[in-house]
Amino acid sequence: MLGSMAKEPDRITLQHILISFAGTQTDATRPQAEAEALARQVLDRVKKGEDFTAVMKQLSDDPGPGLYGLANRGVRQQSRDEYPRDGMVPAFGDIGFALEVDGIGLAPFDPASSPFGWHIIKRVK
After folding, report:
1. What is the pLDDT of residues 57-95, one digit of tens each?
2. What is the mean pLDDT of the chain?
3. Which residues have CB under 8 Å from 54's CB, separation 6+?
4. Which H or E run includes 94?
5. How far apart are CA 119 and CA 19, in angstroms?
6. Residue 66: its pLDDT value, please?
7. pLDDT above 90: residue 10
C-alpha cells in the first residue's frame, strides 16, 4: 500500500529572500561561495525568529516586492498579482507549496531549478 501524500493547496502567498551571486542575471557581485554561506546564515536567523520582512529588506537581491501569490498547476490565477507556479523557477514553487503556513524553507542554488541563487522562502498564506 502506498503512503498518502498531502494534497498541495490551490494557491499560496510567499515571502522570499533571494541571496544571489555574480553571474546570475541579478545585480549581485558576491562570489558564489559567499552567497551560499550568507543564505545558510539568513535561513538560521529567520528560523530562530528574526523578523523575516526586515531581513528581506536588508539583504534580498530580489528587486521586486519579495511577496508573491502563486496559483498551483491547473488552477486559474485570481488576479494579476498572482503568478502561475510554472511561471516561476521550479524550486520556488516546489519548496513553497510543500510548506505549512509560517513555515520557512530553503531552495538551494541549482542551474536548472533555482538559477538566481538561494531562496529563503516563508509561506505567509
Report:
1. 999 999 777 899 999 999 999 998 899 999 999 998 999
2. 93
3. none
4. helix 90-96
5. 6
6. 80
7. yes
Q: What is the pTM of this model?
A: 0.89
Q: CATH classification of 11-123, choosing from 3.40.50.11190, 3.40.50.300, 3.10.50.40, 3.100.10.10?
A: 3.10.50.40
Query: Do 70 and 82 meet the contact criterion of CB atoms below 8 Å apart?
Result: yes
Grid coordinates of 11 = 494557491
How far apart, in whole angstroms, are the C-alpha atoms of residue 95 and residue 118?
12
Closest CA to 91 of 52, 34, 39: 39
Which residues, other chains included, contact 118 with Cβ-Cβ below 8 Å and sequence gap of 6+?
A: 18, 19, 20, 35, 36, 39, 106, 107, 108, 109
Pairwise CA distance, residues 77 & 28, whole Å: 31
Domain ranges of the chain: 11-123
